[in-house]
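[Meeting: bench + compute handoff]

Bench side (C.D.) handed over the final construct sequence. Compute side (W.E.) agreed to return the predicted structure before the next meeting so the bench team could plan truncations. Sequence as handed over:
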Amino acid sequence: MPFPEVQRVLYHRNPLNQVVCQLRFSPILKIDAEVPAAFQDKVRGFFCNFAETAEWNVEVQSPEAGILPPDLLRQAIQSVAGKNYEFSSEDGQWKINLTRTFVALTATKYERWEQFKDKLIIPFQALIDVYSPEHLSRIGLRYVDVINRLKLGLVGVEWKELLQPYILGVLSSPVGDNVSAFESKYEIKLSDQLSLVRILTKFVKEADTGELCYMIDSDFFNAHKTPVDKAFENLDYLNSRASRLIQWCVTEKLHRAMEPQPL
């Protein structure tokens, strides 16, 4: 517990919109001080595209905004911004972000944990080989599920038939049909007493069709100092709880509509 153990399944009609793993560490100034050429050499076999952006770390106080010309203000902000290096796959469905405080892998087409973990090993090993962090300060694994009734052939089906009342909140009440906007947040301790999951649920609209969808954004994390050689042990644990969470949220009707295949 807190989420009951269930049979692991692969959903043929997967509601996952995005999966992100972020591994944080104490600041490594070398990452800002020089281009990550050695890191790129280790990841570019799959992550062949490169871009550089800024990670905003400092908020400029309002008086400067009225004193400095816009160009100088922008330069002042950029001078204190950290660098965010992005390495992406050819199809754009996989992306690494490297900054002086974290490395992250994002997938917009997720099939199963083993596939994601194989890709994650690439930037993780590059980080160890090139920058040698002493430990990890936070291990996070985030799943963003978007329940789209149109895509699932469930148009007109009420949310209370698809999602459990404890995740729907007021939407499961008699006034649920009159709710036009909805958002709730939870933070739940996991059974290892070290990890937590932050759950955000809300309505979102599908960009192309305007279809009203239900989002379940679950961020599983361990914010305790962790040796780097224990990272994947922690991630396996968080992933197993994520598999339990989504089945804990949905009804049998929605579970069947997503076409589960046992693993």
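W.E. noted at the follow-up: The chain is about 30% helix and 30% strand. C.D. will use this when planning the next construct.
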